[in-house]
Amino acid sequence: MFTLDDILLGIGQNIQDIGKIEGMNQGQLAEAAGVDRAYISLVENGKQNLTLAALVKLSEALSVPVSGVIPVSTYRR
69, exposed or middle or buried, with CB in 10 Å at 0-12, 13-18, 19+? Predict the structure, then answer.
């Protein structure tokens, strides 16, 4: 079973990795998603409990589906 902290860390790492692949720094991602750069830093470090709305904004800014930022290892079967 995964804890909330595990999931938040995984989401943050995925967002950071996808951002790098897309060539986006924290400031660019923040601007594209309509959030503050400090918020992106908190998310990437697993310190921010995201709302669904924030997750959608970040996913759209990265051009990936929401499922693309959720760690696959947390899916139930």
Answer: buried
Q: Which domains does the chain have, with CATH numbers?
A: 4-74 (1.10.260.40)
What pTM did the predictor assign? 0.90
The three-class DSSP label of residue 7 is: helix
Rounded distance, CA 46 to CA 21, Å?
A: 19
- pLDDT by residue, tens only, the chain of 77 residues: 789 999 999 999 999 999 999 999 999 999 999 999 999 999 999 999 999 999 999 999 999 999 999 997 765 65
